[in-house]
């Protein structure tokens, strides 16, 4: 970018050419496999993440290698986030790109959430941007909640969690919500499968935004999370935003956006 601006200053290129070159510089092309949006964080508030399931393993390796090419720990670059990465694939990645560990990069893998964050430096202790509550109906929903938690913490926010407090034992829910409100959460993410009733109950009790995450937990007509999704979309409680099935990542980014809009 400095070279482009210098050429413009020296009159070698026009302002239109300068603008086009800067835009092009914001995208890294990885051997025609991936176009990585390096500037997404400054533009949208959260960096681009790599969605693993639909990618060939060799492409994942190539993306990681190219992203960290010519980079060193503590450089001013974003951590690399890889979502929905199975434990089997993660273990294989460690053997193939584990040399990055030797160079000083940190591999932070959450097995339950199936998220890998390759960090360029240790997290600095700082005051959180805000607090976000995460609630699950059952233990089967925790993997999606943990996905949201990793993303929230990666953004510099604090995640306060309460798991397995669904409508099947609704007495468990009220003290947990009260505790989160006392701690000053600004947004609640509520994950539920089966009939997907929990977000409606929560939204009827609080005056802060509720983000509903349908999970694929269920059987029979509820299999795959479609019933939970439709129930949340049809909720009679106002103030609910609904993301796609098992989209803990999307729920977290939306919650972070709300927090940052208040800062």
UniProtKB/TrEMBL annotation:
<keyword id="KW-0413">Isomerase</keyword>
<dbReference type="GO" id="GO:0016787">
    <property type="term" value="F:hydrolase activity"/>
</dbReference>
<dbReference type="InterPro" id="IPR039476">
    <property type="entry name" value="P2CMN_synthase_LarB"/>
</dbReference>
<dbReference type="GO" id="GO:0034023">
    <property type="term" value="F:5-(carboxyamino)imidazole ribonucleotide mutase activity"/>
</dbReference>
<dbReference type="Pfam" id="PF00731">
    <property type="entry name" value="AIRC"/>
</dbReference>
<dbReference type="GO" id="GO:0006189">
    <property type="term" value="P:'de novo' IMP biosynthetic process"/>
</dbReference>
<protein>
    <submittedName>
        <fullName>N5-carboxyaminoimidazole ribonucleotide mutase</fullName>
        <ecNumber>5.4.99.18</ecNumber>
    </submittedName>
</protein>
<dbReference type="InterPro" id="IPR000031">
    <property type="entry name" value="PurE_dom"/>
</dbReference>
<feature type="domain" description="PurE">
    <location>
        <begin position="130"/>
        <end position="263"/>
    </location>
</feature>
């Amino acid at each position: 970018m400095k070279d482009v601006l210098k050429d413009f200053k020296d009159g070698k290129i026009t302002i239109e050419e300068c603008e086009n070159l800067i835009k092009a510089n914001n995208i890294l092309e990885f051997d025609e496999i991936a176009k990585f949006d390096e500037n997404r964080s400054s533009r949208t508030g959260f960096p681009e993440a790599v969605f693993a399931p639909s990618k060939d393993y060799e492409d994942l390796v190539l993306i990681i290698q190219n992203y960290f090419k010519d980079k060193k720990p503590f450089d001013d670059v974003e951590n690399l986030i890889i979502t929905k990465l199975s434990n089997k694939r993660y273990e294989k990645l460690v053997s193939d790109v584990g040399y990055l560990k030797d160079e000083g990069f940190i591999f932070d893998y959450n097995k339950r959430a199936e998220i890998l964050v390759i960090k360029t430096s240790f997290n600095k202790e700082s005051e959180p941007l805000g607090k976000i509550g995460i609630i699950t109906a059952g233990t089967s929903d925790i993997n999606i909640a943990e996905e949201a938690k990793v993303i929230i913490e990666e953004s510099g926010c604090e995640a306060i969690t309460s798991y397995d407090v669904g409508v099947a034992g609704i007495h468990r829910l009220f003290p947990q919500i009260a505790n989160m409100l006392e701690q000053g959460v600004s947004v609640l993410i509520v994950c539920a499968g089966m009939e997907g009733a929990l977000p409606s109950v929560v939204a009827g009790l609080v005056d802060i935004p509720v983000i509903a995450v349908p999970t694929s937990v269920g059987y029979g007509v509820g299999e795959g999370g479609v019933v939970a999704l439709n129930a949340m979309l049809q909720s009679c409680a106002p103030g609910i935003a609904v993301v796609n099935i098992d989209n803990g990542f999307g729920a977290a980014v939306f919650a972070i956006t709300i927090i940052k809009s208040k800062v």
